[in-house]
Amino acid sequence: MKPDRPDHPAPSDADARRAVPPVLVYRPETLPAPGLDQIRKARGMAEKVADLLVPPREARAFEVPAGSFFRISSVEGPQVGDLNLWNAHDISERFFSGKTRALHGTHVSTGDRLWSCLPFLRPLATITDDTLDWYGIDADGGAVHDVIGTRCDPYTHCLLTGGTYHHCCHSNLTRALADHLRLPLREAEWHVHDVLNVFMCTGFTRDTGQYFMKASPVRPGDYIEFFAEIDLVGALSACPGGDCSTGHSSDEAACYPLLVEVFTPPEGALKDWASPPANGYDRSHGR
Q1: pLDDT digits over 118-173, tens only?
Q2: Which residues are registered as beta bridge partners of 125?
Q3: If 0-12 CB within 10 Å is exposed, 13-18 middle and 19+ buried, where does residue 133 land?
Q4: Are 234 and 63 spatial neighbours (Cβ–Cβ below 8 Å)?
Q5: Whole-prediction pTM
Q6: Which DSSP string do the residues of 133-190 spell out, in sequence order?
Q7: How far apart are CA 148 and CA 259, in angstroms?
Q8: CA dihedral (240, 246, 249, 253) positive or negative
């Protein structure tokens, strides 16, 4: 909580301290390049091999082989989605939104990559196309496809309202993963993690630095597309907040389905490409 009035007076050099220029923590040019030209050529030869409609206020899981593409599309009305990704062979390796944020920024688009958790730290997927890339950063500081929000969940809802709601994205993703992998709900829940908020328009308020959301600019026909760098299991929740223009964690907002499609290029289309290995650090930690 930030007080209206600070408890302590500003020092005499306060302006000078605030004027220190920022320094980027991770410079983007030091990251390994995704090779978008070759990937996009392969995409042009790819054929659809699967599709899945995610119902409103529900989630569904899907699989994408390494070297294939998956697209998330708005099909009936403005709708945001919460995306989780796991290594299909070891779900302890999963999407790491915090490191993705640190490496690429608070919002992601074409050319950015979704990185996996420690100790693996490698790209799980690369964004290859985004029809909302025109949006940029608006006058409120809002942008699309954030990696700052955690996902709506029933625990926070209970904390703030005392109520119970079972179609928060956390619960939706838990059910979807449990069903897909035939896990008990409580076991599956440990693997649900912070998300990529697909199509969601968010930012931080200028005065208090609080996380905000506003109506998503997504419309039917818009999509974001990814290249699977390793064999993936994904789960997508069609958020109960709809376009997130007013609220979430209830049945009040107008909600719409989201479409997931998987496309696979022919053998040989990705000549000399290989899935990235797990991070090369030896895990000795100084011992």
Answers
A1: 999 999 999 999 999 999 999 999 999 999 989 999 999 999 999 999 999 999 99
A2: 114, 228
A3: middle
A4: yes
A5: 0.96
A6: TT----TTS-EEEESS-----HHHHHHHHS---S-SHHHHHHHHHHHHHT--HHHHHT
A7: 23
A8: negative
